[in-house]
Description:
This protein has 289 residues and is an alpha+beta fold. It has 2 domains: 8-148, Trna Endonuclease, Chain: A, domain 1 (3-Layer(aba) Sandwich); 158-287, Alpha-Beta Complex (Aspartate Aminotransferase, domain 1). The chain is built from 9 helices and 14 strands. The strands form 3 sheets. Strands 1, 2, 3, 4, 5, 6 and 7 form a 7-stranded mixed sheet that branches. Helix 5 packs across helix 6 and helix 6 (177-194) crosses helix 9. The longest helix has 18 residues, at 177-194. It is elongated. It starts with 7 loop residues before the first strand and ends with a helix. Residues 155-163 have low confidence and may be disordered.
Amino acid sequence: MPDIFRPEKINLANNPDISESKIQDKIAENPAILGLGDLVLKDKERTQPRAGRLDLLLQDPDTQRRYEVEIQLGRTDESHIIRTIEYWDTERKRYPQYDHCAVIVAEEITTRFHNVIGLFNGSIPIIAIQMNAYKFGDDIGLVFTTVLDELALGSVDEDEEVREVTDRSYWVDRGTEETVKMADKLLAVINEFSGGGYELKYNKFYIGLAKNGQPNNFAVFRPRKSSLNLEIRLPYSDEVQGKITENDLDDIGYMKRWGVYRLRLNEDDLKNKKELLKELLIMAYENSK
């Protein structure tokens, strides 16, 4: 019968056998332990043009998004936060073709600095991760917990909707009559399970959804010449990602900052994978309530 016990929590900053470089190496071996997804190591101790070295540069192989990661044993402090933001700013200016996110990893994210980071969140994409260490005999186990996640920005700015309204012909020209009709078919599916009343709202950068004149963009459509891009607003989960992968949907990549799954659909998908698409749309609809 296995014994269940409460492990001893320890402070790494006071442990002479543990250094930031050791923690850095451990994360570099398996970036997934941070809980930010299946990331890969792009660089370590990355030299910055003006001064200093970025602890870790991680990248999402699907979306190509980059994460500038700084590690600190003990509490967060002013220099740690400033350094993290400076490195993020440097990298995004050097490589503007990528989406970038700053990540702070520390043993203790203090209330004061939690609030300070919160002020930046939204204007600066930043994530704070608390690192807890536990002793198991002669070994040490690490647990990483996101205590301040990046603010999920809406993929649609409601003010923009008012100013950037277009019409159906605009999207037929950008896409085709056939790909716009694909949006019609998905709208019919939505009205089937939602009780009806939804209509397509034609905007400059997307086709959204509205009911009684009020936007509810749990799904967004972008007709193209040969396909329809569908964005479904849902928190990321392995279950949903598994359904998309197992059913061989054309996955463009999950955008964590906006909280949307992006799929490229064709007519065969609407015929052969209608039930799966309906299931995903229902989940997004329920999540929007």
